[in-house]
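Researcher: Quick sanity check before group meeting.
Model: Go ahead. Protein one:
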Amino acid sequence: MVPPYRGDTEVLDTPELWGDKGIQEIVDYRFSLIRGKVRTNVYAAREGGKLLDTLQEIAMSKHPVDAEAVLTKLPYGVLTLSGEVQPFGPSAPLRSFAASDASVDHRIEDAFYDGDLKAADAVLELYHDEVLVTRIQRAFSLGMFGRKKHRKLVPTRWSITAVDSIISQALIDQIKEHNPIDEYRVYSFSRLDNLFVAVLMPKRWSFEWIEAWFPGTTWNQNPKGDKAEMMGDWEPYQGRTSYPDIGGCYYACRLAVAEHLSQERRQASALVLREIHPGYLLPLGVWLTRESVREMLKTRPQKFDSLRGALDYAMKKLTIPLKKWIETSELLKRELFQKRLRDFIT
C-alpha cells in the first residue's frame, strides 16, 4: 500500500497512533493508501523473489520509505471493510514496485535471518523487545518468521489473530504462577460510540468477551429493531481448544487483559463487555478492541468487596440490563448460580 504523497506517513498504517482519532479521520488515512495487487504462491516466503524481498525489507524498516507502484489500470475506489482488519482503500493490479533503501530495525532483521527460530518464539522475542504488535503482525503476514523450510505467506487477518493469540497465551501461562487479585475491580472506557467495561474478579484465571451490537450497526442491520444482538466466547482456567465464534477480537481483548495482569504480577477472572452503538458507523478492525481495552485498564478502577457491588456499578456504565448480560455470560452464570464445595462446608 502506497500513499500518493511524500512525508511522514507512519500514522496511515499504525493503529497504535490512532488513539485520539475519529472514524472519518481513520477512514481517510486508509482510503489514501493505494493498494497494488499481485497473485503469488503461498510458499513464496521460502523462495523469495524481487517483489517479496522488497516488501520484507520495508517491513523491517524503522520508518516509512519512498516507494513507487506502477499499476496496470486506474485503482478501483471502493473502501474494503472487515471486522478483523483495518479498512483497505482503492486497489488495482500491480505492474511493478520499487522502494528506496530502508533503515532496518535490527530486532526484526535478526528474527528474519534466523532460519532455525520457530515463528512463535520470534513473535515473543520481538514483543518482549517492545516491537509494536502491528509491526509484528505485518512481518508475520509476509512469511518472515519460522524455520526457513516451513515459512508461508499468511492472510492479514490470520496473522493478526495468530500474533495476538501467541502473545496472550504466553502471558497467561506466566500470570497463572501469581496470586489472584484481592478485590473485585470495575474499569470502564468509551471510544467512537463503543462502551467498554471490564470486571476483574479475585479468582484463578478465566476470561470472557461479550459484544452487544445495537440496531443500525454493522452486525445488526435492522435500524428499526428494539434489541441488541449479543455474542461472546469464554475460556476456563485450562484454556480453550477451538477458535472462538466471535472471531479475532477475542484474542485482541485477551492480549490487553493478559498484559495488564502480567505487569501487575497477578491473575484474575476477567469479564469484558462491549456495547457497540449506532455512532460506530463502520468496522475498523480488531485493533480497536486491543487498543481500547489497553487504555481502559490504564485507568483507576472502582473496587468492591462483592461481585454484586461490582456488577451494580458496572451496569451504571452500560445501557443493557444485567439480566441480558447474565443470559449470555458463562462466567456470570458460574459465579452467581454454581455451587462450590466450600458452600457445603460449615
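Researcher: Fine. The other one?
Model: Protein two, sequence then structure:
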Amino acid sequence: MKAKQILLIALAMISISFCGCEKKAEVLPAADVTDLQYTAVERTVTLTWTLPQNEQVIAVQIVQNGVTFWEEQGAATQAVVENVPVGEDVEFTVRAITPTSISKGVSITVNISAGKMAIPAMLLLAPDPEALPDDDEQAAALWFKANFVDKNTGVFIDAAQLKTLSKKDYSTVFIMIDRVGIGYGWDKLPAALVSQDALNGMKNYLAEGGTIFFAKMATQLISAIGRIEGAYDPGIFGDGDGGTGDDTWCINANIGGIYDHRSHPIFQMMDRNTTEYTHETFALLGPGGVREDHNCMWDCNSYGFSGDPNVVKNFEDATSSTVLATWGHVTDFCCAGIVEFLPTANFKGTVIANGLSAYEFKQNNQDNQYQANLERLTLNTINYLSKLGLQ
C-alpha cells in the first residue's frame, strides 16, 4: 500500500476516533415542558405547563423577550407575571432544569388587548368642559375630550373618584387648575380637590406606580400629597388678569446651557424657535391679545441651597427630580418651570409638574399662533407618563 493511502486511512481513523469522543462527551438537553398555556386578567398573565415525564426537574426558568427574569426551584407548574406590556407581542419561554442540563424551552406569545389597558384620565371639576369656570380649563378639557375621550382612549373622572385611583384603571391622571384670583397655596385650590380623601387617593396612586401630570396652579399639589416637603413648594406665583405684549412666550429646555433636555420625550416633534433669543427655545404663546401671567413654579434661589455646583442641581437632589424647562429668556439656574419628579422608595410613580405662564391653553381675544406647540407638549406629556404608568 502506498504511503499516501496509509496516511489518509490513518487520518480518517483519527477523525472517527475524535468524533466518537465528542459524541460520548455531549450532554443532551433536558426534555421540554408540554401543554404551555396562559390566561390574562388585565395586565396579569398566568402561565401554566406540564413537566416532562421521566425527568428529575429541579427548577423551572422563564425567559421574557429573550431576558431571563424568573427561576423557581422545584417542580413548578405555573407562574404569575404582573404588569405585562399592552398592545405588543411578548414572548415567554419556559425551560426545565435537571441536575445535568436545561431544556431548549417552549415558547408562547402573549398580546394583551389594548381594550384592557389602563388609560389616561383627566380630572373634570364640572359636569362638562363648558361648565368649568375658566376659559383655559375649558379649552384644556375640550382638547382632552377630542383627543382621548371621543376616541375611547381616555376618560374624564370627577373629584369623588380621586380617592379610589388605581393604576389598573388609569395609566396617568391630568390635573389642571388655571384661574384668575384663586390665591396662593394648595389650600386655595378647589375644595373637592384638596379634601383628605382626594389627597390620600392621589398619594396612594402615586405610591403604587401611577403617574400624574399637574399643570399650572395644580403644581402645588406635589407637596400636598407628600411627594416633596412643603419647604420646597413653588414660590413664583401669579393669578392676575394679565395684559397685552408684543413678545413671544417661550420655554428653554437647556438649563444653564449645560443640562440639555431638548431631546426629552415631552418635547418631541415640537417646533423650535431660533429667532426670539440667541439660544433655541420652544414657543408656546404668541404676541398680542391678553395673556395671563399665571406662573406657579420654583425659584431655586429661595431654598437656601449652597449653590455648589448650582441651585438647580441642589433642588433636583433635594426633591429627587429633574428640571426640564424654565422661562425662555433664562439661561442661568434661577428657576424651574417644568419639573419631572422621579420615582422614590415611597412613590413608585412619576409626576410632571408644568407651572409656566407660557403654558396658557387659550389665549384671550385671539388665536394663539403657537397653539399646536402647546398641544403637542400636552400630548407628549400625557403619552410619556401613560407609558410609564403601564410599566
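Researcher: One line on it for the slide.
Model: The first strand starts at residue 34 and ends at 41.
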